[in-house]
Amino acid sequence: MTFRLAVESTPSVAAFYRPGLQALSKHDAQRIHCANSRRLTGSVNVDVALRAAQPHAKRWDYGIGLRRGNGEVAVWVEVHPASSTSIAVMLDKLRWLKNWLQTQAPALHKLTQDDFYWLSTGAPIAITANSKHAKRLASVGLRGPLRVLALK
């Protein structure tokens, strides 16, 4: 299944599919690089799509379709400040996303491997690569925080 079909088969986000990185804000899209942009098959702004239905949830920001090998995968990107106090929020957001994928977005869940990324905003990144915070993030499969995401 393609990323586009997976998004369009998920009622809560179906109307929010966009080609390439068009679902992302311009600023966020500029920080995501892919050597071959034709591998970017589409995107969805999950946060905007679910804002009205789940106003108090710790919603994830974006899903991105990426050609990998002979198929497509879903890559998940959250844009959030990277302070040590952000760890709990990011863990809540990741937990929310994984639950939403399993219960509300089975087609997108099937395209999801372990591509969960935290793209940092604002002030310098306060989480160092070998810190206990970085290890905690890695233990749940969250990569980052990153200034720029290079998709491969």
Question: TL;DR?
Answer:
The protein is an alpha/beta fold and 152 residues long.
Gap from first CA to last CA:
20 Å
Q: Averaged pLDDT, please?
A: 92
Roughly how many Å is the radius of gyration?
15 Å
Taken as a percent bin, the fraction of beta residues is: 25-35%
Poorly predicted tracts of residues: none
What is the molecular shape?
Answer: globular
Number of helices: 6
Strand order of the largest sheet: 1-3-4-5-6-7
Number of domains: 1
Q: What class would the helix/strand composition place it in?
A: alpha/beta
Number of strands: 8
Percent of residues in helices comes to: 25-40%
- What series of H and E elements makes up the topology? HEHEEHEEHHEHEE
Largest sheet: 6 strands, mixed
Word description of this protein:
- The structure is a single chain.
- This protein has 152 residues and is an alpha/beta fold.
- It has one domain.
- The chain contains six helices and eight strands, in the order αβαββαββααβαββ.
- The protein has helices at 3-8, 26-29, 46-50, 87-104, 106-111, 132-139, and strands at residues 17-18, 32-34, 40-45, 62-68, 71-81, 112-121, 142-146, 149-151.
- The protein has a six-stranded mixed beta sheet. A two-stranded parallel sheet has the order 2-8.
- β6 (112-121), α6 and β7 (142-146) form a beta-alpha-beta unit.
- It is globular.
